[in-house]
Amino acid sequence: MTRLSDKERRDLLNRLARIEGQVRGIARMVEQDEYCNDILTQISAVTRALDRVALEVLDGHVHGCVREAMVAGGKEAEAKTNELLEAVERFARMR
Amino acid sequence: MTRLSDKERRDLLNRLARIEGQVRGIARMVEQDEYCNDILTQISAVTRALDRVALEVLDGHVHGCVREAMVAGGKEAEAKTNELLEAVERFARMR
Amino acid sequence: MTRLSDKERRDLLNRLARIEGQVRGIARMVEQDEYCNDILTQISAVTRALDRVALEVLDGHVHGCVREAMVAGGKEAEAKTNELLEAVERFARMR
Amino acid sequence: MTRLSDKERRDLLNRLARIEGQVRGIARMVEQDEYCNDILTQISAVTRALDRVALEVLDGHVHGCVREAMVAGGKEAEAKTNELLEAVERFARMR
Hints:
By secondary structure, the first copy, chain A, is mainly alpha-helical. Chain A has one domain: Methane Monooxygenase Hydroxylase, Chain G, domain 1. Helices cover 85% and strands 0% of the residues of chain A. Chain A has three helices and no strands. In chain A, helix 1 (6-31) packs antiparallel against helix 2 and helix 2 (36-72) runs antiparallel to helix 3 (74-91). The radius of gyration of chain A is 17 Å and the shape is elongated. The two termini of chain A are 27 Å apart. Chains A and D meet through helix 1, helix 2 and helix 3 of A and helix 1, helix 2 and helix 3 of D.
C-alpha cells in the first residue's frame, strides 16, 4: 500500500511542529490575559492550518490507498470509498 | 460513464424541491418581520440540507465517474482525483 | 425592538429570490444529468450565499435586539446572549 | 474590562494543553506511518476541540467586553460589534 513519501512526511511533520507551537502560543496568550479577539483570530489560524494538513493527508490517501483499492475492486474498494465519504463528512463538519 | 440511477435522481429532486420551499419560507419570514434568531435557525437547517444533497451527489460521483477513471488510470484518473480534492476543499469551506 | 430597515429587508428578499432560483437551477442540472462536479460547485455557491444572508441577518440582530437587551440588562440580556452564542455554534456547524 | 475568571482561565489552559498533546500525537502517527484515515479522524477531533475552545473564549468575550461596550455605547460599541461579526465569519470559515 502506497504511503507518504519521505518528503511529504517531513513536510507534514514540520507543519505539525509549527501548529504545536501555535497552540502553545495561544495558551501563553490566555495566561497573559491577552485580548479575546486576538486569541480568537489565532485559534482560527490554527484550525485552518489543521484543515490544510488534513487535506494534504487526504491527498496522499486518495492517490495511494484509495486508488489502489479501486483498481483492485471488490469489498476493499467499497470499504475505502465509504471511509472516504465519511472523511468528507468530517471535513464538512457533518459528523 | 455511470451517472445517477433513476431512484437517486428522483430522491435528489425531491430534496431540492423541499429546499426550494424552505428558501421561500425564509423569504416569507423576512417579509413578515419574524424574529431574527428563528430566521437564522431556519437558514442553518437549509444549509445542512444542501450539504447532505452535496454529499449524496459526491457519493454517486465517487462510486461512478471517479472509480471508473481510477480503474482506467492515466491522465483522466489524475484529473478526477484533483477535482475530488477540490470538492473536499469546498465542503470544508477552504475555497 | 429594532428590526430590519426597509432597505435591508428588500436586499435580503432579493438575495433569497436569487438563491431560490439557484436551487431550481441545481434541480435542472440534476434532471439533465449534468456533470456531478459542476453540480457540487453550484451547491457550494448556494451554501455560501446562504451563509452571507445569515450573516446579514445576524448583523441586524446584533445591532438591534441584542444590543438593546444588553443595554437593558437583566434576564433578557442573558437570554439574548445565549441565543447569540447558539447562533455562532450553528455558523460553525457545531450544532 | 471583564476578562476571564481564574476558573475559566485554568479550564482553557487545561484544554489547550490537551490539544497540544493531541497535535504531538498526530505527529507521532505520521512518523509511524499509521493509517491515513485514522490520522484524518484524529485531526478532525483536534479541530473540533479548538472550535470548542474558541466558543468558550467568545462566550467570555460577549459576556464581558462586548456587553460592557454596548452598555457604554458610542464608537467602542460599534467597534466591538464589528469585531464580533468578523469573529462569527471566521467561525463560519467565511474569512
